[in-house]
Each structure stands twice: as C-alpha cells, then as structure tokens.
Amino acid sequence: MKTAVYILVMAGATYLIRMMPFAFFTKKIESRFIRNMLYYMPYAVLTAMTIPSIFESTGSLLTAAVGTAAAFIAAYAELPLIVVALAAAAGVFAAGLF
Amino acid sequence: MKKRREFFGGVLAGVPIALGYLSVSFAFGISAVRAGLSCLEASAISLSCLTSAGQVAGVDIIASGGTLLEMAAVQFTINLRYALMGISLSQNLHKSFTLPHRLIAAYGITDEIFAVCSVREQPLTPAFMYGAVMISTAGWITGTFVGAFAGSALPEAVTSALGIVIYGMFIAIIVPAAKKNAGVLFAALLAAAVSVGCRHFAPKISSGFTVIICALAASAAAAALFPRADEEEQVSGE
Asked: Interface pTM (ipTM) of the complex?
C-alpha cells in the first residue's frame, strides 16, 4: 500500500504542474519578445531532446547515425511525419543487418 | 464533422509518438520491475503520470524509500518544463477549448504532444489534442505493461529500431521549419549546441532541466536576433 501513496503523490505533482498554467493562464501575452520566444520554443525543445540523445537511442552509434541521416533526408524532402519517423527506423534496421 | 476530422488528425499526428513511446516505456517497464515494483504498479505509474524522466526518478525514490516530500519536489522540478509548454499552448487555443477541456487535456501535456500541438498554424482544438493524447497514452501504457510483464522477450533488433522512431518524428518537425525560417534554424542549432554542452560538461544536470535551459536560452536568443514581423503572428481565435 505504501507504493500506492507514492504513486498518488507522484501523479498529483505531475498533474498540478501541467494543469495550473494551462488551465488558468488565459490572457494574451502582449510582449512581442515573449511571443517571439514562444514561437521559437518548440523547435528549441525538440532539438534539445533530439541531440545528442538520438545517437544513443539504438545502442549503437553507427546504426543511430544511419537512421538519423535517413530521417534528415526524408525530412528535408518534406515527406509526411510518419514517413520520416519510419525512415529513421528503417535506416537503423538496415544498418543493423551489416 | 469538423470535430471528428480534428480528432483523427490528432490520432494521426500521435501515431509516431505512440510508436516511440512504446519502446521507451517498454524500457521503463523492465527497469520498474527490476526496482521491485509489480507489473500493475508500473502500469499505474505510466497511466497516471505519462512522463519519462519523472517516472524514472519516481521509481528510484520508491525503491530507495525516499520521503513523499522528496517525491513531490523532484516531480515538480523535472516536470517544470510542462508549465512552460502549457503557457505556450495557452496562447493559441481555439475558443472551444473551455476550462473543463483544459483541465482534462492538461493531463496530456508531454514534450512530444506539445510539439505536434504547437507547430500547427490553426488554433488548437480539444478534439485534436485528445486524439493525439489518447493514442500516445495507449502506446505508453501498452509498452510499460509488456515491458514489465514480458521483460526482455522482444528481439534486440526490433527494440533498437523502435528506439529512434520518436526522434525521427522530431526531425520531421524541425528540418522543414528550419529550411524556411532562419530564426528557427538558429534556435535549433543553438539548442543542439547547448544540449551537447550540458551533457558533456555538466552531466549532473537532469534531462528535464537541460530541456528548460535549452528552451529558454535558444528561444530568447532567436527572439532577440530574429524578431518576427507582427503580421505573420496569430490574431486568430480571439
């Protein structure tokens, strides 16, 4: 039962920090600088999560690099999201065969 | 129906997230069982928390018998970035996104769901977000359960190929935008540099904090150096 209490606190804290700003912050931000920041932020977040972690995501630097290159080429060609994502996996899988 | 189209749009956008989550949560399931949790407990954590770094840290605290205060404090810190993302999302919500919807949808703010919700041009609807959250959550819980239950039964080649899917999706979002917009390119390059720097020179900084540092530094620098013209910004949705 002790674990259940831990889980409850864990879930509660995680929910609160997500919910409070999203539910109750309703006014438009006036500052142009902040609005610009918010525009760029998702790209910064995504890149920070991708690099360097992508190179550790498969357990082998080589297969990860091949997968990354495949995804990059597919993304540069502006293929659909799911195609790019699967191209990365296909690259890893193919590189793993050698 | 427009709502239905939005919902399925969200589901579609969530498919790569779900695939990626499957492999990450699979690993979480295995490690949670190793730390002494039951399969059910591990799955309950994934269902109720829906976050990677926070869950790993949480399981550590449970395993080492930490205090509840420590648990709350650690979750707050690691997940602080979700507050930032919530504020960002709040700026471009469709008017149908009322308070009850926000209270429910807040559950699903993760890095990946934030990403697919925030890079759309049109205001975010509850239907789209629910679609993305539902399929992603399904992947997250399934992966945890299977990982906890069946341990290391899946062949290595499959799990390692699955491990990269989610990053492939990130690349699919970043690269086309960076191609068209110098500010985005700059923000991405700077974030990558700071991220590598943190990992290399300050490995003690948690991954959650690294994301916060990169997000703030790179977006502030890009906003200062590449201010956008007012017209191209959202005036939509009131």
From this structure: 0.86
Chain B contact set for A50 (CB, 8 A)? 167, 170-171, 174, 192
CA distance B215 to A50: 13
Instruction: Please provide residue B51's backbone torsions phi and psi, each rounded to the nearest 5 degrees.
Output: -155, 145
Specify which residues B93 forms β-bridges with: B124
CB contact under 8 A, A85 and B165: yes
The total number of structural domains in chain B stands at 2
CA dist., res. A34 & res. A51, Å (int): 25
Helices (H) and strands (E) in chain A, counts: 4, 0
Per-residue pLDDT of chain A (98 residues; tens, 9 = 90+): 589 999 999 999 999 999 999 999 888 888 999 889 888 988 898 898 889 888 987 889 999 999 999 999 999 999 987 789 889 989 998 998 87
CA dist., res. B22 & res. B214, Å (int) = 26
Claim to verify: residue B49 and residue B128 sit in the same structural domain: yes
Work out the minimum CA distance from B1 to partner chain A, whole angstroms: 24
B197 & B118 share domain: no
Asked if residue B131 and residue B188 are part of one domain, the reply reads no
Is residue B130 located within the same domain as residue B194?
no
Q: Is residue B189 part of a domain?
A: yes
How many beta-carbon contacts under 8 Å exist across A and B? 296
Evaluate whether residue B199 is within a structural domain: yes
A62 to chain B, any CB pair closer than 8 A? The answer is no
> Quick check: A45 and B211 CB within 8 A?
yes
The alpha-carbon gap from B72 to the nearest alpha carbon of chain A, in Å, equals: 6
The reported pTM is 0.75
Domain interval for residue B205:
181-226
